[in-house]
Design brief:
By secondary structure, this protein is α/β, with parallel strands linked by helices. It contains nine helices and 13 strands. It folds into two domains: 127 residues, Rossmann fold (3-Layer(aba) Sandwich), CATH 3.40.50; 173 residues, Dihydrodipicolinate Reductase, domain 2. The structure holds NADPH dihydro-nicotinamide-adenine-dinucleotide phosphate and N-acetyl-L-glutamyl 5-phosphate. The site of NADPH dihydro-nicotinamide-adenine-dinucleotide phosphate has 25 residues, from helix 1, helix 3, helix 6 and helix 9.
Length: 316
């Protein structure tokens, strides 16, 4: 794979977004235009599905970002690889490579050393939106022994409709979709493999996503019976563990415990930001807690995370 300075050593890095006109691609383009740290090179719209034209764009780029359906993303990776020494580094926003060998998972705050691994990687997979929320809650607890790897975990989540890409956006905006629905009830949502792999779970969790009639915003929640956990921790213990894990992180914060007194949380508060925040609700009498991660599915759940990874990869 090529090194970081190819092919424009000394100049601003060149970035090609394959799928630039889609929901995720546009979000990345807007953020990169605002930052002005890289030169985005764009393909003529009528050539956006022409393999030869895309390959030439890849040749001219230091980094390509794939904002494509999974099959097209796999094809794009082959196109890039066919360039041999001239191949750019790859950041894939699709689901295609998130648990694939040779790929680094693009969630820098997930674990110690992950940001450095992303910075040095040739192939980075941008996480799924729900998976980002779930792993943000699970991983620090599993790493600290507070949640056993084989604990029976159930995760609930609600997303804005932009999570479904252009077709779902069109359906909601033309009032052709329900106000709210649960889905993924075959219990095999596409984010389960990455939640399990990077949440360090030995046992398949139950994941129940839902979508509501709002464009963007997301809540991912993890209910826990505290007395079934090793040492029967309190909600405050879980809060302390999460706060210690994310101390100093720029894009992930643990809300002060007093905020949980409200007993409620709304989904849209972090819209148009690249942040994720974590809230720990609990009831000591019943020995129960509900941990909630809140994010913008298009921000830390997609385009914001991609730009964070791009900046790590290119050192900009
Ligand atoms: N929406 C979200 O919140 C998130 C989405 N993702 C992932 O990002 C990827 C893109 O999703 P999203 O932006 O929502 O999807 P969209 O449907 O909004 O956009 C997909 C884009 O890819 C283009 N495209 C499709 N097939 C090809 C091809 N063979 N060659 C070149 N371009 C192609 C489409 O063009 P055209 O419309 O002309 O067919 C469109 O511009 C998906 O893999 C999705 O899983 C990741 C994180 C979050
Ligand atoms: C509401 C909705 O349909 N959401 C999508 C996930 C969106 C997303 O971000 O997933 P990827 O990053 O893996 O594309 C779904 O459940 O399939």
């Amino acid at each position: 794979m090529s090194d970081q300075t190819h092919p424009t050593a000394g100049a601003r890095p060149r970035v090609f977004i394959d799928g630039e006109a889609g929901t995720t691609g546009l979000g990345i383009r807007t953020r990169l235009d605002e930052l002005g740290l890289v030169d985005v090179i764009s393909i003529a719209p009528e050539k956006r599905k022409d393999a030869d034209a895309r390959r030439e764009m890849m040749r001219a780029a230091d980094l390509i970002i794939l904002c494509l359906p999974d099959d097209a993303a796999r094809e794009a990776v082959s196109l890039a690889a066919s360039l041999g020494d001239e191949a750019p580094r790859v950041l894939d926003a699709s689901t295609a490579h998130r648990v694939s060998e040779g790929w680094t998972y693009g969630f820098p705050e997930m674990a110690e050393g992950q940001a450095e691994a992303i910075a040095g990687a040739s192939h980075v997979a941008n996480p799924g939106c729900y998976a980002t929320g779930a792993i943000a809650l699970l991983r620090p607890l599993v790493e600290r022994g507070l949640l056993p790897v084989d604990f029976p975990v159930a995760i609930n989540a609600v997303s804005g409709y932009s999570g479904g890409g252009r077709s779902m956006i069109e359906d909601y905006e033309a009032a052709r979709a329900p106000a709210f629905e649960l889905y993924g009830l075959g219990l095999k949502h596409k984010h389960l493999p990455e939640i399990r792999a990077y949440g360090l779970l030995a046992r398949q969790p139950i994941f129940v996503p839902s979508v509501g009639n709002f464009r963007q915003g997301m809540l991912v929640s993890l209910p826990l019976f505290l007395r079934d956990l090793p040492g029967a921790p309190s909600a405050a213990d879980l809060h302390a563990a999460l706060a210690a894990h994310y101390e100093g992180a720029r894009n992930v914060a643990v809300a002060p415990q007093e905020e949980a007194d409200a007993g409620r949380i709304e989904a849209l508060a972090l819209n148009d930001t690249d942040r994720l925040d974590i809230h720990v609700f609990g009831n000591a009498e019943h020995g129960q807690a509900v941990l909630v991660a809140r994010l913008d599915n298009l921000g830390k759940g997609a385009s914001g995370a991609a730009v964070q990874n791009l900046r790590l990869m290119l050192g900009v």
